Amino acid sequence: MLLNKGANYNKCDNQGLSPVLIACAHGDKDILRLLIEKGADYTKCNKIGQSTVMVACLNYHTEIVRMLLDKGADCNECDSYHQSLVMNASRDGNKEIVKMLLDRYANFNKCDILGKSPVMMACIHGHTDILKMLLDKGADYNRCDTFDESPVIMACIHGNTEIVRMLLDKGVKCNRVDKYGQSLVMNACIHGHTDIVSMLLNRGADFTKFDRNGRSLVMACIYGYTEMERMLDKEVAYDNTYDKCGNPYRSLVMTACQQGHVEIVKMLIHKGVNYNRFDYHGQSPLMMSCEHGKTEIVKILLDNGADYDKCNKVGHTPLSVACRHGHTEIVRLLLNKGACYDICDNNRKSTVMMSRRHGPTEIIRKLFFGKRAKVLENLLDTSTDKCDDGCQSPVLIACRYGHTEIVQMLLDKGADYSIYDNDSWSPLMIACKHGHTEIVRMLLEKGAYYDRRYNDDLSLEKIALDNGHANIAKMVLDMF
C-alpha cells in the first residue's frame, strides 16, 4: 500500500538503515523481494560499511544471501574493517554460506585490517568443516596477522585439537614460534591443552626451546597444569631446563611456589631443582611461599632442607615476611625449625615489629601459650624498645595502626611508651590523632601524659579535635 502511494523505499533512518537493510537483518524474503522488484537499492551500506548481503550473512539468512548474490551483489565486498563475506561466515561457522561464496569464486585469502584471514577465523573459533573447505580451495594456512600470529598458533591457544592436526598434516612445522619466541607446544601448554601438547610431542616438537624472555616449555606449567608437567616429566631428563630463570630471574619452582601448585613443586623437587635459588631481589622459593601463605609448600621446602634464615635485598627473612602478612601457621613452622627471630631488616625493623605494624595479634598471642613461649618472651624482651630508622618504636607503630592487644602486650612487658619519633610524635599523640580511644585510655592510665603540651604547642585535646575525635579530647580533659 505504501509503495503504491509512492513511499520512498530508499530513505534511511538515523542509523543509516534502509528498508532493504532492515528486511535483510530480519530475514523477511517476501518484503525484500517486493522492495527489489520496485527498484530499491540493494547495494546500499549502513554506517559501518555493511551492505545488504553482508547484513543477511551476519544474521544467518542463507536464502536471502543467495537471492542477493543471484541479483548481482558482490561476493567480495568488505565492510569498513575490511571484513569480507567469507571471513564473517567462517568466523560464525555458517558452512552453507561459506560453500555458496566459494562456489562463486569469492576471495578466500582476503584479510581484515588486523591481518586476520578466513582460515585464521576458522582456526580461532574451531570450525573444522569450514577450514577443510578453505584448505581444499587452496587457502593460505601460513599467513600471519599484524601481530605475527599464525593460524596454527591460534588453534593451539584456543585448544582446537583437530584443527592443529589438520594443519600439521598439511605441512605446518611443529616447531614454529610466534613473535615472543614461544613454540606451538609452549602455547598449548600455557593454555592447558593437554591433547595438543601430547600430539606435538609425538610429532617431535622441540621441548627444550626457550622463548625470548628465557622461559622454557616446562615453565608453562607455572599455570598449574599438573598433568602436563607429568607428561613432560617422562620426556625431559633433569638439566638446566628446570632451573633456568625467566625475567626477573625467577625460576620455575619459585613461580610454582608463588601460585601454590603443590604437586608441581613436589615433582620439581623430585627432579632435583635448586630450591634455594634466589631471584634478582634476593627472594627464595621459601620466602615467596611465606609471603603468599602457601603453608603446605613451606612445609615441603623446610622438610627438604630449604634455607630459612636467608635474607632478601632489604633484609627480610622468611620469618619476618610471614609475620608481616599474618601467616600464623607458617610462623610456627619456621620457629619450630629454629628460624632466627631477632634479625632486623635494613630499616632496623625487627620480626616482632613487622607483626605489630600489620596487626596479626594471633602470631604473638597464640605462640605465647605454645611450646615456643620462651622464644617469644626472649623476642619481646629484646625488641620492645627497638626503633626503626624513623625512630618509631614498636609501641608507636602499634598505636598508629590501632592494634590494642599488641599495645597491651608491649606495656605488660615494660615497653617505653614515651619514646618520640623523628617528627617528635609520641605513641599517645599518635593514638589521639588516629582516634584509637581504648589505646589512649591504656596509655593515660599507665601515666603517659606528663605535660599539658608537646611539640609546636600542640595539646593532646587539640590533636584529637583537629582530627574529629571529640570523645578522646573529652577523655583527656576529664583525666586532667
UniProtKB/TrEMBL annotation:
Kindly state which keywords UniProt assigns to this record, in alphabetical order.
ANK repeat, Repeat
Q: Which domain of life is it from?
A: Eukaryota
InterPro entries assigned? Ankyrin_rpt, Ankyrin_rpt-contain_sf, Multifunctional_ANK_Repeat
Tell me, what's a Pfam family for it? Ank
* Stretch forming the signal peptide: none
Q: Where are the ANK repeats?
A: 15-47, 48-80, 114-146, 147-179, 180-212, 248-280, 281-313, 314-346, 390-422, 423-455
PROSITE patterns assigned: ANK_REP_REGION, ANK_REPEAT, PROKAR_LIPOPROTEIN
- Which SMART domains does the UniProt record give? ANK
Annotated PANTHER family = ANKYRIN REPEAT-CONTAINING (PTHR24123), PROTEIN HOS4 (PTHR24123:SF33)
Q: What is this protein called?
A: Uncharacterized protein
Organism (species): Mytilus galloprovincialis (Mediterranean mussel)
